[in-house]
Amino acid sequence: MSRGGVWAKAGDGARQLEIESPAAVAVARDAEIDVKVTEDGQSALTVVQGTAELGAPFGVCSVRGGTASVGARGTACTAPQPANVAAAVSWKQAGTK
Question: Which among 66, 62, 95 is positioned nearest to 78, based on CA atoms?
């Protein structure tokens, strides 16, 4: 994914979901995630539920539900910080009303 955003819910099967961007790779299994990529390639992974990993050029961050991490070109991913998961999936709930 080169730009934009995607919400995904990965199952708990043997295969994992991978979303690749210019700066990082988000990997999820049995998790609900939101990935956003800016024009400069910076990638933000928000984990709504479960646990996922964000792999950046200088390391991998384990990101748990309710937190987010950012990866940018030439840097390590940021330490996961608390995230507003309701905002990350608000578009999904608006479409079901």
Answer: 62
Q: Which range of residues forms the domain containing residue 57?
A: 4-92
Query: Residue 50 has what DSSP assignment?
Result: S
Nearest to 44 by CA among 58, 65, 23, 59: 23
Q: Which residues on adjacent β-strands are paired with residue 31?
A: 10
**63: domain CATH number?**
2.60.120.1440
- Tokens encoding 43: 């990638």
Q: Under a CB-based contact definition with an 8 Å cutoff, are residues 18 and 46 in contact?
A: no
Whether this model's pTM surpasses 0.70? yes
At 65-92, the pLDDT tens digits run 999 999 999 999 999 999 988 887 776 6
